Amino acid sequence: EEEDEEQSKEESSEEDTSSEEEEEEDNATETGGLKEAAETKQEVKLEQNVAGPDEQKEAIPARKTAQSKQLSEPAVFIPVDRSAEVQEARLKLPVLGEEQVIMEAVRENPCVVICGETGSGKTTQVPQFLYEAGYARDNRIIGITEPRRVAAVSMSHRVAKEMNLPRQVVSYQIRYEGNVTSDTKIKFMTDGVLLKEIQKDFLLQRYSVIIIDEAHERSVYTDILIGLLSRIVPLRNKKGMPMKLLIMSATLRVEDFTENQKLFRTPPPVVKVDARQFPVTVHFNKRTPLEDYTGEAFQKTCKIHRMLPPGGILVFLTGQAEVHSLCRRLRKAFPFRKSSTAKQKKTVSLPRIDLDNYSALPMDEGDEDREAGIGDEEDGGSDLELGDDPAETDPSIPLYVLPLYSLLAPEQQAKVFRPPPPGTRLCVVATNVAETSLTIPGIKYVVDCGRVKKRYYDRVTGVSSFKVTWTSQASANQRAGRAGRTEAGHCYRLYSSAVFGDFSQFSEAEITRRPVEDLVLQMKDLNIEKVVNFPFPTPPSAEALVAAEELLVSLGALEEPPRSGRMTDLQRAKLSCPITPLGRAMAAFPVAPRYAKMLALGKQQDCLPYIIAVVSAMTVRELFEDFDRPARSDDESSKLNQRRARLAQMRRLWAGQGASLLLGDLMVMLGAVGACEFAGCTPKFCEENGLRNKAMVEIRRLRSQLTNAVNAVCPEVGVFVDPKMAPPTEHQVLCLRQIVLAGLGDHLARRVQAEDMLDPKWKNAYKTTLMDDPVFIHPNSALFKTLPEFVVYQEIMETSKMYMRGVSAVEAEWIPQLLPQYCHFGPALDSPAPWFCSSTGTIRCHRSSTFFRVAWQLPAVEKE
Ligand code: CDP
Ligand code: MG
Predict the structure, then answer these.
(1) Which residues fall in a compositionally biased region of kind Basic and acidic residues (predicted)?
(2) How far is the CA of 239 from the centre of ligand 2 (A)?
(3) Which residue's CA is minimally distant from atom 8 of ligand 1?
């Protein structure tokens, strides 16, 4: 699912159409009228501060007044013209009851933590409280960060609608798009967007408040932002430009923020919002968990729909493919056609379900209840208390099935918030997107597969893989909670309570399980030299920080540290290498450092348009459809075979011949992008040729975004990317291969030579500098048959074997020229080949070659 997050893409949605209809409110005059009143109120407020009990009482009165003056914001009231309907709905939200407490805490503290169950109204209401209290006056704006793009977009639309303000006032900004204008007062954005803004203006002077939403998710950027803001806020206050920080979390586990001395010397106050959560009965599966949890989810959903009273169903699965497959099955089982709901009722034929599997115990809360965490081990009783009178539900009611995951187009996503067509039951099949960031109305039943898909990265080997693992208890309870928003509900867990007992209590912070070189580079660009001293809510390991600094040094982004004897990781991490001019250029590109290096070098030999295309393609996770999946029927199998053959044919075509073939998989990507653009990037072309249209559209966006970034960094180059680029010349292909090597230098692999091959498992295998195990070129790779002696790879994915992805061939003599930092120059060794990768990760070579250092210019292409 992380994959989804990374690549999440939103089509520009309805914001263009609606803004004209909505009238811009003339706030200016109203604010003017309120100003005097506001000022008097402020004085009153300040006096109260002096007189009333205050946490900052220790300070001497005079200073205290000064301090209060700085910290307190004027108590004003900016009216908002909400419809009666909206107002009524708002009043039901638990967070409304805490408005006074929250606003008082905000006025009196630079930083406040707000905890409240998902759905309690934090995201939609707190920005409105701040707006009404005048935090969006004087050209200052209220910023809210979300870890997910889906949430940033949909929440901005929602708040604009609630406040009856146009979307250029309540706006959003995500990686590729936004509708922020000079009139913007409330800005929803992804955390990555704010991080970039901090690089441009460290004090974030446009903002009066920053709200970090969904802090419990512990996404890397959220963590970094909290660390940065813990410094920015006091700085702003010292400079007399008061700023507030609000951290909002759906769980009460906030000690990492509040009890972290490095982060906040005075722990910020925590405001708890008591959610009006209805009881949710948790039912565990009796049986040991099955492999086929999608099938199990199907069964359970059918049973709920057939036997239980009305109420929406929300099913949690782990990934997009699963979501679609379950949606298909459910739609087939309970067909729904828009035009003929009424007719459908009579004609629909239902699959037969084995009712004997279940006992029909009346559902009695508090008796058969098994609340999360207090379940009895034996899961007693039936595995599914689908009690109630089955006759209560008309089984012929169609099921209105909707998928929900972050890659889904926003129009599709928006559907889940609208009431289902009359006479149908809503069933949303979702990934963990629906866990906390979005609240779907009307859900009464939750089906939880208990799993989550996560990207795992092995720092030592550099191997990454997606693994479906058990989720945490905290997440499972969040999922269950989705059933009790509007009335008492039920959560069906497709696993036993014993298994639940073995879940980890909380999900670990993302920062502890991914490489951090991109973050280290961003921080260095912010002139934070000693990253090891940065106030991370959860610090990454010293080992990870050292690995990141080493990679950045080898890429030339950081200055080389002074050489000294043996050091521990922590000692080395403390060395802190300053950023180089190349590093600054690289930090300006919104891609990982290895790719940023390629972009920085790409201007040579007119290679930039190709490098931009290749980097865009490498950043988007998968261009090609996966036809290697097992088929469910003979019919499907023959279709898959056909499409697989077609894709293989296209891959060969795109890989080209002769010189271009050596660029390998990157040439295939380039060819695919080029061909697709010539065909207008249509879904039809993609479908026919085995390309993922979503990925290709994303690449197009990325290409134009990276082009802008490159032009901003080196305006003298003035690249213009013609979507329809001509294929690179042979000369350019040679350059491209060298640029790729310069960026992916630490991902060099050498084919195991016949004489070294002691074990048959090394047949056609490659040895990398990072690990002892053999790695392979995938049969789908353009270089599968060529098997060049040296290759670089984009990454290693572990599936049935360790496979290199994104392989490109390297000429041996380029290595000492382009990667001297990895080479060991010494006297000739008694080695059959002049080059080899030793298990310690060094590449040795003879002194006889002439060496060049890669900086901004590439050495001449001709071999010496
Ligand atoms: O942030 P938190 O989870 O505390 O709640 P919220 O996202 O502010 O949602 C408050 C209420 O607004 C929920 O009951 C949602 O169902 C509702 N909402 C909605 O109906 N449509 C949206 N697009 C967003 C929120
Ligand atoms: Mg929220």
Answers:
(1) 36-46
(2) 32
(3) 121
Ligand 1: nearest atom to the Cα of 116: 4
C-alpha 292 – ligand 1 centre gap (Å): 33
Name the token pair of 724. 């329809």
> pLDDT digits over 102-158, tens only?
999 999 999 999 999 888 999 999 999 999 999 999 899 999 999 888 889 989 999
Q: 439 alpha carbon to ligand 1 midpoint, in Å?
A: 5
Give the residue, by CA position, lying nearest to ligand 1 atom 15: 439
- Calpha distance 858→856 (Å, rounded): 7
Euclidean distance between CA atoms 478 and 507, whole angstroms: 12
Residues with CB under 6 A from ligand 1: 93, 116, 118-125, 154, 158, 417, 439, 441
Q: Predicted ipTM?
A: 0.98
**The model's pTM:** 0.69
Nearest CA, atom 6, ligand 1 = 121
Cα 539 to ligand 2 centre (Å): 25
Nearest residue CA, atom 23 of ligand 1? 158
User: Hey, is 427 helix, strand or coil?
Assistant: strand
CA distance linking residue 567 with residue 595, whole number of Å: 30
Q: Are strands 463-470 and 451-458 parallel, antiparallel or unpaired?
A: antiparallel
Determine whether 29 is exposed, middle or buried from the number of CB atoms within 10 Å of its CB (0-12, 13-18, 19+).
exposed
11 neighbors 410 (Cβ within 8 angstroms): yes
Strands 186-190 and 170-173: parallel
Read out DSSP for 781-807? STTTTT--SEEE-SEEEESSSEEEES-
Locate 76 and state its tokens: 């004003």
User: 88, 90, 122, 124: which to mutate for ligand 1, most atoms within 8 A of CB?
Assistant: 124
How many whole angstroms from 723 Cα to the centroid of ligand 1? 40
How far apart CA 834 and CA 849 sit, in angstroms, is 11
Higher pLDDT, 382 or 605: 605
Q: How does residue 819 score in pLDDT terms, banded at 50, 70 and 90?
A: confident
What is the full DSSP assignment across 454-515?
EEEEETTTTEEEEEEEE--HHHHHHHHHGGGSSS-EEEEESS-HHHHHHS-SSPPPGGGGS-
> Cα 460 to the chain's mean position, in Å?
23
Cα of 618 from ligand 2 centre, angstroms:
32
Amino acid identity, residue 422?
A: P
- C-alpha closest to that of 307 among 236, 355, 356, 376: 355
Q: Helix or strand or coil: residue 246?
A: strand
Q: Which ligand is nearest to the CA of 122?
A: 1
